Structure formats: C-alpha cells, structure tokens
Amino acid sequence: MRFIATADWQLGMTAHYLGDEARPRFAQARVDAIRSIGRVAAEHGAELVLVCGDVFESNQLDRAVVARAFDALRDVPVPVWLLPGNHDPLDAASIYRSREFLDGCPEHVHVLDTPGVHQVADGVEIVAAPWFSKAPLSDLVADALDGVEPSAAGGVVRIVAGHGTVLGIDRNDPAGISEDALGAAIASGRAQFAVLGDRHSTTEVAERIWYPGAPEVTSRRETDPGNVLVVDVDHDEVAVQRVGIGTWSYLHHEAELTGEADVDDLERWLAERPAKHRTAVWLSLTGVLSIGEKARLDTVLDASRDLFALIDLWERHSDLVVTPAEGEFGDLGLTGFARDAVDELTSRLEGDDAQAARDALGLLYRFSHGGAA
Length: 373
Known about the structure:
This protein is α/β, with parallel strands linked by helices. The chain has helices spanning 23-44, 63-73, 99-104, 140-145, 179-187, 260-271, 291-305, 336-347, 354-368, and strands at residues 2-6, 49-52, 80-83, 109-111, 116-121, 124-128, 157-163, 193-197, 203-206, 209-211, 227-233, 238-244, 249-257, 279-289, 310-313, 319-322.
C-alpha cells in the first residue's frame, strides 16, 4: 500500500524571532503545507496521510488556527490520521478534545487517541503511540507494540506511528524510543514500517524506520526539513521517496570581511538568494573593517532587511573588529562638536564601551555621507 508520512506541522508556531511583517507569512505557510500534502497524495495515488505528532504547536491556540487547519484539511482527498505528540498531548487541556476541534473536524480526519492497533483501511492497520502528557516515563512505541502479534504472511500491513527521540540520535530520556526494540518488532513481522515524529530533519533511522521531518523549516539547525515521504510498503518490500514541499529557507552564512570587496561579495550573495520574503538568514561575520567599510556593510544589511524575512547578525558566532583607517574622518571635514565626538568615540574603541563606540562612529560616518556609505 502507498501512503504519505509526515509530522511536526507545528500549526500556530509563533516564530518570535521574525518581525511583525514576516510572522503572518510564516504561519500561513504551515497551513498551505497541508494543501501541498493533499496534492502530493493525489498525484501519487496515496491511500492515506499519517501525521506523527505535533500537528499543533500547543494545546492553547487561537480558534482561528484550528479553523484554518480544517479548511485546508478539507482539500486533502484521502483520510488523514493525526497522532498527538509532545506539543499537543491528550492531556486535560488537549486541543483534540476542545469544542472547536470536535465541532469542526472534517469527517475524513481522525485522531489516533488510544494506544495500540487501529484499522484504517482494508488490510492496513496503524499501531499508534499517542502522548498523554509532555513527560511520559516509558517508551510509548514499545508500550503500544506490547502484545501485538505478527500478521500472517501477505496479510495485514501494519505501520507504527510514534513520536519522540530515538535513543542515541539526539538525546536520552525516559520516553526515548529503542531502535533495537522497534527494529526487532519489524523484523519479526509485528509491523512493516515505522513513522516517527519529533525530529524535524528528514532522517532514515533504519531501512523501515523514518522521520519524515517537518514540512516547513522551524529552526536554523535543521539539516533537511521541508519534505514529506511517499511510502510504498508491504510484507516483502519497502520504497521511500522524499518529496520537497517546503517554501521557507533558514540559512546560516559565514563570511570573513577584510575590506570593501568582501562586503561587495556578501551583498552579491544576498542578492542572489531566491524567495527572499520566505528566507531567514543568520550571519556569522569575522574579520577587520574600517569605519567606512562597516558603514557600507550596515547599509547593505539595512537594505536586505527590507527584502528578507529575517537578516540577523549572530553575535555569538561573529567576531568583526572595526577600527578607523588613517585619515578616515579627517577627509570628511568635520569640525566643532562633530570633530570632538569623533575624538571621544575613537578613544573608547579599546574600552568596555568599544561596541557602542564603533556603532556610533559608523552612524556618524553614514550621516556624514547623507545616510549612505
């Protein structure tokens, strides 16, 4: 059988680091991803869509987030099965038990709200491991598989739906998923494939154990987000195809700047990025620039901030030294208070106020050039 594997939609994610203008676009992209998943399902003839946890960013969301999600889900042409994860567990405040969810949920959308085996189609079962709290104390996938017997050869195809970290991949915790135990369950015929959520980068843990990753990027540390999986699985064979649907990009760019030519190169790199309104860039800048060169860099970054979803100078990973070049301010013909300010700020370039002094000199330089370096 063929199905779409996905996870970590994080609907309602706030992305606090984005500006007020970009944040609504980011939120809408997560809803638009649902419709893209529906198109992939239709194009590939999938029987169902399985979403393995963190469908919603939390259990406390504006009702409009749920309404927009349902509107998008109505465009998905096949049944959709949702697994509660650590962000949206089935606790007392669960979004899946809210009046907004129960009244508005489309008929073809189902919540895997009990552990164990669920029949989802003729000859297809899902072994579900939903979360009931944010801090479970056992391997929920192993618990869900406990007591599940192997299916007859050529009979029912079983898919494990889990959420959480595989022990040894990211971090260890009491709810960590044992790869050995899950692999043994698949090898013995108790299941034929496992889909896991929580890791936002598409990852093959083993031949029949996969993280599909988040359909839209959520962090600059993710290595391969923006995908869903088209999975063909039976008792004998499995085939997995990554299909990219993400529209946002998070980039970390490192550059050493030692003069105006390097600033030009950075400007060129930024100009060449596609879909700037859906791109967030974290810059790690090192090197030595004069006040004038730093002023030009600031002009480039200010112009880029008008185009990109985010341009951020990652201070913790940057070491950019700014020092006045010989005669740099003398050529501007500054006199009086302006000249005194330059002298005062220059004297502070080696003290505790060095960063503030460099920024102030840069602004003074730009203002002296009519606002542009």
